[in-house]
């Protein structure tokens, strides 16, 4: 691997590293302090905690007006370019990522919302699935051109409708991600957009469907806190921590996120068969519980494979 001499020298020059980062930090501070940007970020914080976009006019203008989003991005590029002219190895202090032709730069995050610069490289793509989540997204196209479609979900049984559109500078989109999925089919020139994303306060699971059959292919927790708890349950299960089984059984019975409760049932069954099967039977017998049907199906399947489980099934209370 060839390493440029300037980069090799920078590795050992801590003072220059600090100067470069200080220059970029100052550039971003200047961008945030510009009056038009400061107003947008203040409105963003109100939006992030639940205010309707219409009640945040400075932010709304970026996703409904003609040039507010462009000015916001141009101001950032201008400040960063000035800093990079002096310190070309400076690194913008924003969280960023690149994955298979998609680049993201996180400009702001607060509460349930994110403000992101998003770019996609040219190319063609085909889609056999569509994903939906409990959130809303607003998008302002800044540069590039692409053929796209919005896949609209109609009802809970996997019926879909397509709405084709062309994305180019000036296009503004408002998407209810519970019902709409934006898919980029053919990107002619690198597509750059400003995206505003906000999850609901208690998001349900994200789901992915087959566009041909309408079948539900994959489901994941919509709240990162739920994901963390599911990982914790799985870890306790892999560690064989039998003392966690009563806690898991109680969590399975407690009202709350269905995905987390189902994970608790599964891990409890693996740790302590009696406690887990008792919790499962309780769910199967609760007609108003959203887990009643899958719990009844799993209970029947387990009893068919292991009839001895009837010995640990709780006895129904007499009427």
Question: What's this model, at a glance?
Answer:
The protein has 319 residues and is of the alpha+beta class. The protein contains ten helices and eleven strands.
Overall description:
This protein is an alpha+beta fold. It folds into 3 domains: 84 residues, no CATH class; 127 residues, Jelly Rolls, CATH 2.60.120; 88 residues. It is 42% helix and 29% strand. It has 10 helices and 11 strands. β2 and β3 form a beta hairpin. α2 packs antiparallel against α5, α3 packs across α4 and α7 packs antiparallel against α8. The radius of gyration is 26 Å and the shape is globular.
What is the percent of helical residues? 40-55%
Gyration radius over CA: 26 Å
Order of helices and strands: HHHHHEEEEEEEEEEEHHHHH
The coarse silhouette is globular
Can you identify the CATH superfamily of the largest domain?
Answer: Jelly Rolls
- Per DSSP E runs of 2 or more residues, the count of β-strands stands at 11
Average pLDDT level: 90
Number of helices, counting only DSSP H or I runs of 4 residues or more: 10
CATH-assigned fold name of the largest domain: Jelly Rolls
Q: Note the gap between the termini.
A: 77 Å
Give a short account of the largest sheet.
8 strands, antiparallel
Low-confidence stretches: none
**Relative strand content:** 25-35%
CATH 2nd-level architecture of the largest domain: Sandwich
The total domain count is 3
The CATH class label of the largest domain is: Mainly Beta
What structural category characterises the helix and strand content? alpha+beta
């Amino acid at each position: 691997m060839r390493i440029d001499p300037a980069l090799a020298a920078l590795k050992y020059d801590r003072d220059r590293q600090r100067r470069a980062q200080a220059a970029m930090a100052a550039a971003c501070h200047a961008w945030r302090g510009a009056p038009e940007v400061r107003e947008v970020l203040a409105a963003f914080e109100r939006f992030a905690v639940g205010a309707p976009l219409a009640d945040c006019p400075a932010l709304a203008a970026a996703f409904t007006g003609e040039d507010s989003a462009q000015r916001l991005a141009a101001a950032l590029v201008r400040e960063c370019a000035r800093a990079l002219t002096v310190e070309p190895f400076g690194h913008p202090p924003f969280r960023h990522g690149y994955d298979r032709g998609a680049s993201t730069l996180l400009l702001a995050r607060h509460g349930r919302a994110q403000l992101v610069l998003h770019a996609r490289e040219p190319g063609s793509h085909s889609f056999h699935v569509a994903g939906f989540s409990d959130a809303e997204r607003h998008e302002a196209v800044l540069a590039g051109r692409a053929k796209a479609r919005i896949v609209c979900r109609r009802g809970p049984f996997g019926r879909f409708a397509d709405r084709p559109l062309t994305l180019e500078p000036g296009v503004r989109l408002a998407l209810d991600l519970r019902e709409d999925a934006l898919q980029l089919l053919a990107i002619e020139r690198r597509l750059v957009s400003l995206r505003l994303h906000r999850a609901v306060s208690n998001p349900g699971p994200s789901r992915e469907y087959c566009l041909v059959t309408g079948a539900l292919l994959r489901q994941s927790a919509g709240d990162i806190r739920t994901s963390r708890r599911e990982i914790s349950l799985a870890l306790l299960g892999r560690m064989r921590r039998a003392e966690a089984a009563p806690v898991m059984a109680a969590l399975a019975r407690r009202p709350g996120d269905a995905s987390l409760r189902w994970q608790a049932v599964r891990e409890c069954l693996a740790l302590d068969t009696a406690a887990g099967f008792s919790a499962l039977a309780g769910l199967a017998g609760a007609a108003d519980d959203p887990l009643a049907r899958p719990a009844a199906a799993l209970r029947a399947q387990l009893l068919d494979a292991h009839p001895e489980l009837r010995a640990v099934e709780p006895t129904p209370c007499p009427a």
